[in-house]
Amino acid sequence: MSKFSRGRVLAGASALAVAFAFAPPAANAQLQPAAHAHVHGIASLEVGIDATSITLTMSSPLDNLIGFEHPPHTDAERKAAEAAVATLRQGAKVFAIDPSAGCTLKAVELSSAALGVGHPDPSEAQAGHADIDGTYEFACAASQKAKFVDVGLFQFAHMQKVAAQVAGPQGQFQRELTPGARRLVLSH
Fold this sequence. Notes:
The chain starts with 5 loop residues before the first helix and ends with a strand. 27% of the residues lie in helices and 32% in strands. The longest helix is centred in the middle third of the chain and has 15 residues, at 75-89. It has one domain. A hairpin with a 2-residue loop joins strand 7 and strand 8. It has helices at 6-12, 14-22, 25-31, 62-66, 75-89, 91-94, 124-127; strands at 42-49, 53-61, 95-97, 103-111, 131-140, 148-151, 161-168, 171-177, 183-185. It has a six-stranded mixed beta sheet with strand order 4-5-2-1-7-8, sandwiched between helices. The protein has a three-stranded antiparallel beta sheet with strand order 3-6-9. By secondary structure, it is of the alpha+beta class.
């Protein structure tokens, strides 16, 4: 998958950076962003929880969302791309955080070179595979009370799995979500 732009890393990783700074070396190495393979059907999701916010950063091959991974050429492809981007911009419909945390969507940043959205990594155009990356920032009254996030990425027909990494008050861990198991539980 494409590398994250400097702006998205800074915006989306503040909570993760704090967690990594205090994590034991083995846990830190386990959660460090790796060079992810571009695999159709699979998206990655990183969740950072701090005292007043929850930040979700996702990356997915475009094929998972629109059925192709090139700039749209036909009217049908343009409509599919526009619909996917419009859905992804509605962050609260893509990620529903446990209401007990009192979270409201603060910002959504999307980026895709193939779709001409946001500020994509310039190397994505040369990679031969098109992705879309998104950072979702939620301001929360009591983020530590969040027990789960319902992940709405499976509304896209080609999405088969979401590989999630979480860093927050409950520790650091990984989860795998599927269409039949869409709820990301935020504890071990």
